[in-house]
Amino acid sequence: MRQIVLDTETTGLSAAQGDRIIEIGCVELVNRKLTGNNLHFYINPERDSHEDALKVHGITTEFLRDKPKFAAIADELLAFVRGAELIIHNAPFDLGFLNKEMALLGLPPFTQVAGSVVDTLLMAKEMYPGKRNGLDALCVRLDVDNTNRTLHGALLDAELLAEVYINMTRGQNALMIEDAPNEATPVLDTADMDFANLDLPVIRATEHEMQAHETVLRDLDKAVNGQAFFRKINA
After folding, report:
1. Is the pLDDT of residue 41 over 80?
2. Catalytic, out of 57, 89, 152, 208
């Protein structure tokens, strides 16, 4: 399974009012493993950042002046994310800006290119209701080292979010089934083994356990207004 953890930095908070993307960071996961095949762009937004936004990301208009415009990187970005599941923290914000950039180029929405979207902010709110669920708070809660995050940066934040996502969903590792058995794991062949003389111990239920079992069966009888299925097959 291929997933892309994505983050953006922008000139402000409102794509509808003309704010633009200035940075995009993408981190690739394949079967929940970091591959190192990442994608990163700084983008000339053709406008200044709002003062409050500049305090967050620190990316100046002067720094972005010689960077490519979104139109110049769109094809490479779309090819990289095509068909992958996107993992984004507060997905409506980033996708709103990406869809706006696509619309300015006369292209279909960005969300039509990806396979699906996972919003880790919604996941975090379900897992940790009533708690702070920003990226920094999740890093602290899930033991992800964010000491280098003095300012927001799209690639750094995507890398941190990838680790946060892996830690948030660590139980899913048990659901990953390999297509073929591991060659290093020996397989016991029982075809020619004789079990006829194998003396297995029989552990019988205690009187207390039998009474508890009967109580459960009575409750099942009441629930089905008759005889529980276990009694029928036992009979």
Report:
1. yes
2. 152
